[in-house]
Amino acid sequence: MSLSVEIGDLTRVEADAVVNAANSLLLGGGGVDGAIHAAAGPRLLEACRRLRKTTHPDGLAVGDAVATPAFDLPASWVIHTVGPNLHRGQDDPTLLASCFARSLDVAAELDVRSVAFPAVSAGAYGWPVSDVARIAVATARSWLAGHPDGSPREVRFVVIDERVQHAFDDVLGR
């Protein structure tokens, strides 16, 4: 099992699954969500529309996760998760932890070896990077410890800059 952090472009990461910091509508947006939708191509939006028409007619709940194929991305899967929005008063850290845990649950159901996460809720949703790093790493460590023989085996945090990388490095003890 491995946990790592790197600066990079989540849309170019070679991992079995990438996690999308989606909004509850699942129909694209800004930031990571917009970049993933743009790079994956129009079939991703079609797949998300199908989810809205079938299993998620009211959208995806904060803290939950669901997968679609990755289409034109180098990954095989996109795992969409909705982080809590601090600006809307969603300040419960268990909701943020649930984003990471539920995404790992979905990754395990897909039997993927590697999954790459952004810093969910650290951007436009206003959560402090240090809190996101602490919660993300603690949740991933706990999840991996509870699934010692399962998948995924590799969890990567792919972040946008050195400031975010340093926050994750601090929590990872590097």
From TrEMBL:
SUPFAM superfamilies: Macro domain-like. InterPro entries: Macro_dom, Macro_dom-like. The keyword Hydrolase applies. The keyword Transferase does not apply. It is an enzyme of class 3 (hydrolase). PROSITE patterns: MACRO (PS51154). One of its GO terms (molecular function) is O-acetyl-ADP-ribose deacetylase activity. Residues 1-174 form the Macro domain. Gene3D superfamilies: Leucine Aminopeptidase, subunit E, domain 1. Its EC number is 3.1.1.106. Pfam families: Macro. Keywords: Hydrolase. This is O-acetyl-ADP-ribose deacetylase. It comes from Promicromonospora kroppenstedtii. The lineage of its organism: Bacteria, Bacillati, Actinomycetota, Actinomycetes, Micrococcales.
